[in-house]
Amino acid sequence: MTSGVQPEFRRAVQADVAAIVAMLADDKLGAGRERPGDPAYLNAFKAIDEDPHQLLLVAEADGEVVGTLQLTFIPGLSRLGMSRALIEAVRVNKHQRGGGLGQRMVEFAIAEARRRGCGLVQLTTDASREHAQRFYERLGFVGSHIGMKLALD
């Protein structure tokens, strides 16, 4: 961690957007789909921030955003009206990887999902991210479904 300081978790603010986008763009997949500096991210942040079913989380250490994830709370009718939480866009600053921050962020997200009454936490990860799949399996996630996506132009 930066200077040995344990990161604190908090709701993201607009000033965090550039750091979050930089982490999203900082890998092989993200480099091809993200455009740091594009004003579209500020519009997206506003929509996320105004939605009570969304939590855009950041980990901050020494005034620097070093991790992020988005947690979405989804009410449902199936499973006797069970709500679930969806974890998306988990990223850790490349200088912070390997120190357990990703695990602590996901554990925080799971605890928040429980606190909000969710009975299930789910996520997807790109099929090419084998290291991420092993990471989530170590945290107890099970590859029980096949994720499918349809890109809309």
What's the number of domains? 1
Shape: globular
Tally of DSSP β-strands: 5
Instruction: Name the beta content range.
Output: 25-35%
Low-confidence stretches: none
SSE-based structural type: alpha+beta
Give the name of the CATH architecture.
3-Layer(aba) Sandwich
Strands ordered across the widest β-sheet: 1-2-3-4-5
Q: Could you give the distance between the termini?
A: 40 Å
Output the CATH topology.
Answer: Aminopeptidase
Count of helix runs: 6
Can you give the mean pLDDT? 94
Oligomer: single chain
Instruction: Supply the CATH superfamily name.
Output: Gcn5-related N-acetyltransferase (GNAT)
CATH hierarchy class name:
Alpha Beta
Any idea what the radius of gyration is?
16 Å
| Biggest pleated sheet | 5 strands, mixed
